[in-house]
Amino acid sequence: MGRRSTAKADTPAAGAVSGSGKRLIPRWWSTTVIVVLTVFTLVIGLISAVAGDGLVDLSMFGLAVVSGLVLVSAMSAFVRPRRRREPKVLADGSRVFRAPALTTWPLVAAWIVVLGVAAVWGWVVVTDIGELESPGFSLVMVVGALGSLPDFARLVTGRLHRWTLTVGPDALTYRGYRTDVTVPWRDVRGAHVHERGPAGVRIDMRGAQAKDPIVPIAAFDVPAEQLVEEVAEARKNARR
After folding, report:
1. How far apart are CA 166 and CA 49, in angstroms?
2. What is the pLDDT of residues 108-134, one digit of tens each?
3. Could you tell me where the beta strands, DSSP code E, fall in the chain?
4. CB of 84 closer than 8 Å to CB of 4
5. Which of 13, 75, 229, 238 could covalently link to 185 via disulfide, CB atoms 3.0 to 4.6 Å apart?
6. pTM of the model
7. Is the separation of the CB atoms in 64 and 110 below 8 Å?
8. What is the pLDDT of residues 186-235, one digit of tens each?
9. Buried (b) or exposed (e) across 189-210, using 16+ Cβ within 10 A?
């Protein structure tokens, strides 16, 4: 599969549905997420700036860091323009589309900080719960952090994946979070733009029992239409 030119007109940010003019990720949603995260980061940052030097007070700074990191990831996912880009091409001709580093690594860093803050609050709950101004919120966060430990174990053992779509000469591979699917082209019927839940690209699999993976477009910096076209061309070439 040779290198193909993608020098076409840019697609609007967040990807529009081909021929319909609809945006896959509405502007109001992107704006709301960014505004809420920005306000939360500023508020928590201000609280941490005026807090004392106790262990619980210092943990508020950790929350501000978490919120700031998530904000960076959200800016990358929702504000970055989605334009047609040439992907990484491997020696066998495979074309690899991978989630930008600014979308993925801040989330991992935020996760690690959350676990640290939850550990502090868990210790305080056991030793002196009266030190917590909002023990209910703290307990919810501690329980949530404990619930995320199995996925964190998957992350450190390589079983939790950065969003990646590989269009190869013989097969298609999609990895994203817990999903890890590799299928030969004979088992792929095609792909189409999927508007909601999540918005992105649905890979149509053959067989009534086959589950169609959905590639979330928020995780990538190319438009959904380009991914659909890549899948269609790879299927066509695989039949020759």
Report:
1. 45
2. 999 999 999 999 888 888 887 777 777
3. 88-89, 95-98, 161-167, 171-177, 179-184, 188-194, 200-205, 214-216
4. no
5. 238
6. 0.84
7. no
8. 999 999 999 887 899 999 998 766 789 999 999 999 999 999 999 999 99
9. bebbbbbeeebbbbbebeeeee
